[in-house]
Amino acid sequence: MEKMSSVKRSILTAVCLALCVVLPQAFHAIPNAGAIYSPIHIPVLLCGLVCGWPYGLLCGLAGPALSTLLTGMPPAAQLPPMMVECAVYGLAAGIFMRIVRTRSVYADLYISLLSAMLAGRLAAGAAKAAIFAPSSFTLAAWTTGYFVTALPGIVIQLVLLPSLAFALMKARLIPPRYPES
Q1: Which domains, ranges and CATH numbers included, belong to the chain?
Q2: Which of 12, 19, 127, 161 is the most buried (most CB within 10 A)?
Q3: Phi, psi of 144 (to 5 degrees)
Q4: Mean pLDDT of the chain
């Protein structure tokens, strides 16, 4: 199987980091769009899926921090739990893409993506409940914030990310998952 060079992974990670700053800016013209569409999650999850867990983890940690530093979004108060969530997204997407092998690219992508999305939401909820807002964070707030309000963003991610990763493979910008023999 063809491997992607660390230089190419680094370049793709840099592009994803840039998207972590630019993409949310496009959505923030809409009130409450960050919570509804979760635009910063898209490049982080993509990075984990196509570059692997170390790069996804880096993108998940640095993307929100860089966005806050350059644009003020997310606000500093929301940054720590978002960094936990995004770091787990990038980490889990990369790990699941490494271990899930169904012989179907789309099945691998969907299983990895759904698993990463759930892991990130669980980690962020646990971090908020235990560290960042222990007295005020409830199960109802977690469910509402991470699933109900974010449903449009979840749908966008589920439609866009597997197709985008598959298109990158077809365009030979990243190695094919299952090369034809």
Answers
A1: 6-29+37-170 (1.10.1760.20)
A2: 161
A3: -65, -50
A4: 94
